[in-house]
Amino acid sequence: MELEPIIGLEVHIELKTLSKMFCGCPADYFGKEPNTQTCPVCLGLPGALPVPNKKAIEWTIVLSQALECRVNSNSKFDRKNYFYADLPKGYQISQYDEPIATGGNLKFNVQNPQGGNGIEKLVRIRRVHLEEDTGKLIHGQVNGEDSTLVDFNRSGVPLVEIVTEPDLRSSDEAKAFLKEIQKIVRYLQISDADMEKGTMRIEPSISLKQLTVENGQLSNDGKLPDYRVEIKNINSFRFAQKAIDYEIGRQTELLLKSEKIEQQTRGWDEAHSVTVYQRSKEEAHDYRYFPEPDIPPLYFSPEFIGALPPLPELPWAKSSRFVENYKIRQSEADLLCEDRGESDFFEQLVTVSQGRDLSPQKIANLLINKKVQRKGRPAQEVLEEILASHTSDFDVISEVIVEVSRGVVSNNQGVINDYKNGKEKALDFLVGQVLRNLKEKGRADPNLVRQKLRELINHG
Q1: Rounded CA gap, 287 and 84, in Å?
Q2: What is the mean pLDDT of the segment spanning 366-377?
Q3: What pTM, to 2 d.p., does this model score?
Q4: Residues 248-263: tens digit of each pLDDT
Q5: Hey, what domains does the chain have and what are their CATH numbers?
């Protein structure tokens, strides 16, 4: 039996507006005393009326444009009805049949398991909509008894949800997609998308499709499985990858036994590295959606959308331009463009170094290898420091290390595979090989060698 994973993602991102989605309470709740940033609106008290946050709506439109979505001229908010302890009103103000945007796509690179350049992947975006976040449950002991407390500081914070089509086929693809989304959001400066703080959370849906054999070739008829299993509220890329892989394995085992897989919602138990049953999967009708009666429908005129700030240069476009204009390697351009501030500073350094003995490639390597720090200083000052401190030993620090490391990597594929399979000590062997080969060319920092090897293995 040949099975193919079918994976879709829901990505929830808290927007860093000053106030919450439907009231004037501060949206920066992290680290604050529980239940100190609330009001009758976000606590759902009788008679309180919501007023939409215009900035959150504008930022959602900008994100939709970055994902090449169609921004709908008409949109509205709906009530999503369900009862849970962290939902003070008994319903969540969300969007159902008229979201802010639909029909986008995102291209990104997935690391090639065979090494070399990444593999380009396109994932379709089904919709981008806006809603309010819920409160936060805190499990612990009160007076010696197990208890669950609720902190409503987070309740009502603007939450944008990106829903993909089920176009992903592995946990590696899902992780690469999520990292690209995080970069875009940070480039747009609409959210920190900090997984540890919970401002970016992930809910993958996984099912398996049995492929058929036609004329000796595996064939996919394009139909989706009749079930899906959703894993709720994952807050790290690593956990998302592990949860998807575990769920693929669990479902494979059931299908090989000819057992039917139930459509359900599961959670990720990190302590035991397993997914656990939570409840049967809800359908849209279970939430009894109806239009939010206290908020008028939204209309986005062409003039309104045209007046929004233009998109900044996004990471993939900037990376391609760096390779074209500055002749640096693609892997290094990608690393520089992981962070908007770092990529902007690289360009500032290139500009002020015109006419000096410092190429863009040298500047890129120094920044990537952390041999120079920005620390809020002007580019000219940092340039003088580079010229004074790093030019003399630069060749050994960067270009020679790169070339020697490439040779070591290409000649030790077995060790590379061990490292990719989680054997961290395999990297120590490679570091030793590089240092031995560098002995006649000068001294090198083992930490720099280790970092360069990681880059070569992970990015080609």
Answers
A1: 12
A2: 79
A3: 0.83
A4: 999 999 999 999 999 9
A5: 3-306 (no CATH), 313-392 (no CATH), 398-460 (1.10.10.410)
